[in-house]
Specification:
heterodimer; A: four-stranded antiparallel sheet; 3% helix; globular; B: mainly beta; seven-stranded mixed sheet; four-stranded antiparallel sheet
Chain lengths: 117, 114
């Protein structure tokens, strides 16, 4: 079974508007971490935001926020006030309990975001 | 603080050859993971090293092997290269194991097998 599912291969957003990138995950471990990364065309993965499974509040980092709905196993990324530099691939990732998985990250297939001027 | 670095940036090899990719972890990080990212896909976990020992492995054949050195830098070795090994290879380091540790990625090595 897929650990991370991103159902939006491509998204478009007008500059200065907000956009939500969807992510659902699957794990039976009670302790896990959810991450979002941005990958520009240069290839480097840039860490954006982290949400722990026990965190009561949604994570926020500047213009990025994570809409964490634990019961639905979703961890959507919200980007507010989109900028042209936000155009990139976005990956959702999960890391669950190290004793079972060796601490690996599971990545989704990514969403390509294009910001339109 | 020095980030994660990888070498070389690009590499072209012939099918059947062997290749070694190198990664220097971020200062203070003792855990290194390697990922393979095929074109248009998300990264796939190859293996992880924690304090010089392999600490988990993904679904990759034994011809993918690695090392971690006392300074926590790492190597990924791939023997008997196949065309499907063409991909971006990403190295990531973290300050420890456990779900809360974020991984910091290097710029990657783009391997082309002809």
């Amino acid at each position: 079974a897929q650990k991370i599912t991103q159902t939006q291969p491509g998204m478009f957003v007008q500059e200065k508007e907000a956009v939500t990138l969807d992510c659902t995950y699957d794990t039976s471990d009670p302790s896990y971490g959810l991450f979002w990364y941005k990958q520009p065309s240069s290839g480097e993965m840039i860490f954006l935001i982290y949400q722990g499974s026990y965190d009561q509040q949604n994570a926020t980092e500047g213009r990025y926020s994570l809409n964490f709905q634990k019961a639905r196993k979703s961890a959507n990324l919200v980007i507010s006030a989109s900028q042209l530099g936000d155009s990139a691939m976005y990956f959702c990732a999960m890391r669950d309990d190290y004793s079972n998985t060796g601490n690996q990250f599971y990545f989704g297939t990514g969403t390509s975001l294009t910001v339109i001027p | 603080e020095t980030g994660v670095t990888q070498s070389p940036t690009h590499l072209i090899k012939t099918r059947g050859q062997q290749v070694t990719l190198r990664c220097s972890s971020q200062s203070g990080h003792n855990t290194v993971s390697w990922y393979q990212q095929a074109l248009g896909q998300g990264p796939q976990f190859i293996f992880q090293y924690y304090r010089e020992e392999e600490n988990g492995r993904g679904n990759f054949p034994p011809r993918f092997s690695g090392l971690q050195f006392p300074n926590y830098s790492s190597e990924l070795n791939v023997n008997a290269l196949e065309l499907d090994d063409s991909a971006l290879y990403l190295c990531a380091s973290s300050a420890g194991r456990g779900p809360s540790y974020e991984q910091y990625f290097g710029p990657g090595t783009r391997l082309t097998v002809t």
